[in-house]
Amino acid sequence: MPAELEPGGQESPEDATSPAHALELLCHLEPAARGSTACVTWEPAGDGKRVISLADNHILLWDLQESSSQAMLASSASLEGKGQLKFTTGRWSPHHNCSQVATANDTAIRGWDTRTMSQIYCIESAHGQLVRDLDFNPNKQYYLASCGDDCKVRFWDTRNVAEPVKTLEEHSHWVWNVRYNHSHDQLVLTGSSDSRVILSNMVSISSEPFGHLVDDDDLSDQEERRLEEKSQEPPQDSVIATYEEHEDSVYAVDWSSADPWLFASLSYDGRLVINRVPRALKYHILL
Amino acid sequence: MKNDFRKMEDEMDRLATNMAVITDFSARISATLQDRHERITKLAGVHALLRKLQFLFELPSRLTKCVELGAYGQAVRYQGRARAVLQQYQHLPSFRAIQDDCQVITARLAQQLRQRFREGGSGAPEQAECVELLLALGEPAEELCEEFLAHARGRLEEELRSLEAELGPSPPAPDVLEFTDHGGSGFVGGLCQVAAAYQELFAAQGPAGAEKLAAFARELGSRYFALVERRLAQEQGGGDNSLLVRALDRFHRRLRAPGALLAAAGLAEAATDIVERVARERLGHHLQGLQAAFLGSLTDVRQALAAPRIAGKEGPGLAELLANVASSILSHIKASLASVHLFTAKEVSFSNKPYFRGEFCSQGVRESLIVGFIRSMCQTAQSFCDSPGEKGGATPPALLLLLSRLCLDYETATISYILTLTDEQFLVQDQSPVTPVSTLCAEARETARRLLTHYVKVQGLVISQMLRKSVETRDWLSTLEPRNVRAVMKRVVEDTTAIDVQVGLLYEEGVRKAQSSDSSKRTFSVYSSSRQQGRYAPSYTPSAPMDTNLLSNIQKLFSERIDVFSPVEFNKVSVLTGIIKISLKTLLECVRLRTFGRFGLQQVQVDCHFLQLYLWRFVADEELVHLLLDEVVASAALRCPDPVPMEPSVVEVICERG
Q1: B142: how many CB neighbours lie within 10 A of its CB?
Q2: Chain A residue with Cα closest to B386
Q3: Residue A192 in contact with residue A171, Cβ under 8 Å?
Q4: Minimum Cα–Cα distance from B473: chain A residue
Q5: What are the residues whose beta carbons fall under 8 Å from the beta carbon of B137, sequence distance 6 or more?
Q6: Per residue in A81-117, pLDDT tens?
Q7: What are phi and psi of A138, to 5 degrees?
Q8: ipTM value for the complex
Q9: Phi, psi (5° rounding) for residue B538?
Q10: Which residues form the Exocyst complex component EXOC2/Sec5 N-terminal domain (chain B) (predicted)?
Q11: B232/B294 Cα distance (integer angstroms)
């Protein structure tokens, strides 16, 4: 979707009866100087002073000063190569002191160091066709998920980019979004233009591959025995649920930042669906 | 009668008296001659004794003469006769002298015999004779055993060396048949003779002697087998097994005789083992040959597909290429089966062994060769699906189509035919598990399905790329009023028609939903009538979009959701439907990402109408095409700030013109 050129929104006609606040424009990030902008992301940690925007084949790092009323270009980098290279999406890694950014252009994924604006790693042919979205695992460093137009979702370890750690092929058309749950990174949400939202349980590559470990002191004898039986085999990766409430392509999915078990999905026909993780799984993960 | 009886009685009396008189006279004669009789007997005895003594006295000289003349046998006989007597009377000095002389001469005789024996120039029977004589002379038997075996070893080793010389690279190697003949007659024949002679001569030795012979035979036998295996290993190439089988047959036959003689040496078993090993290698060789032939025919197909068309001459059609590939594979399989069948022919000596009757047929031929080849064919075909980078640049899509049809044909008819042929020729007689026909057919069908799905994906991708580029690179906001259909749409229709023709060469038509008579004349009824007013009101009042959205959502509820990458059936219509679905969905998603000016929207409208005019006849259900194209235009309209659609009649005029 063509992104706005400004981080803030435009003013929309106010409806006196609605309680929504009006949006106020704070500052511009040098609009239209370098072509169309594909993506804008804030720094995950820190005091919200730094923003990265991807425009055509440039990465631009902005510093917001004076309570965000002014944006200074701190540094930038460009992608050189044959043909018209264009960034399609980008993501700021929450690890490594927020100094890494991953971007996607066509079928390649590149990692950049924001301190020097140089490329760290490059995953060529991450997908057979266009890469649509990226997400970093919030609990595990170096782990990255990507999804693309070849209907696949791939998980990568950025230390060894030759091969994906895992590949999921549950969707039957382009996958537009992939999202890790913010606290329990075995829950992965994907939305696709085949009108489905799939919630997967990627236990084997999560930060808790053998489930929640409980201290032995806290258990009574009965529970101990039961837990021993259950923890004999590590849980397998699986699809938890497929949500088919949408009638048209699903273009965006995301987790709620308030409740780690809620997620929302948005489809082309304007339908916003909010769902919960199944209760049995939630208790299984928590206990 | 009484007279007669009386006469007879008288005569009998007379006879009796006569007899008494005769007896009387006879006794008197014996008594007179008794004396002389005794004396004559004594003389005769003395004469015999004297003759013996003479013999004894003459013995040394006679022995010497015999030794000089070389009549060893005679000498040994003399010696044998005299030995016991000499032994008994050796306390008499004269006899002692004779005995000493004799011993000296005997020793010399023995030495000469040994020398003759050692020279070994003489053939085996003479050697056997020497040994016999030596044994009769009382030589210790173990020594003789050893020497005999050592001699035999020397001879046999010479044979082995000559065989080995034949293996060397410098002289042109004779063929396998001659080699085995040479080996068989030379070495094996010699071994037989040695074994027979040994057993005759040293039968008195008992098990120790037999054990020595067995060890000897085993050692030399293993060397012979090693040479034979080396020679057989050289028989690499050539699909013709007849020479090899005959050579193996001779080899095996030859070893039956020594095998019977020397049961403990295990020669026959070793020979059977060698034959089995060679048979297994040949099977592996044939399998490789079949695989290479399959790959070769695939390369030919690729070349034929890639060859530039000579003007005025049609290249080979896909159906022809398919027929060529199938027939060549079948002929290769038949040739392999025929040449392997030689191993189990009745005349061949080893065909009765349990391995050949059972395991060779079932495991070797049926499982490893035939089933193995079919499986490797399926795997090779599937590897075309998994090529990295799904651009499809490496494999021509026609090849995918051809392979999928080949696998389908195999599943329906050819696999069962081949396996029936195999089972007829090689009657399976053991109970080892064999792969049933149904498993193989299922595998072949699965391969065919994967190949066809991959073909649909690849072709769909090609058309999708065209559509995507056409949407992404055009400036829709400032385009002019459409006068004609865009060239890329015509390209799409042409490509789809070409694919239709290509698939139609190999696959049947398939079932299509009944076409309504006015399909090509259909306008955007849903779009133009009910939606038009609500959607394109210039003011964005909240109610209007809701109405149309409600309508479209209700519409969507009642229409089936379209599954884009659904499994493909084995007919042309299904393949084409899959390809068109993929392409139109791509068009839809790309259109949703752009912003259109008024004329941009109209251009999209014209293009979609054009596509609808031509694509409906390729798909199974034309509603599908209508639905997707309606969606495209609707999405474009939503992305347009100033949507004013073109009049349907004008759209039709433009499409008909272009």
Answers
A1: 13
A2: A128
A3: yes
A4: A84
A5: B76, B79, B106, B109, B110, B113
A6: 777 778 888 888 888 888 888 888 888 888 888 888 8
A7: -70, -25
A8: 0.79
A9: -65, -25
A10: 7-163
A11: 27
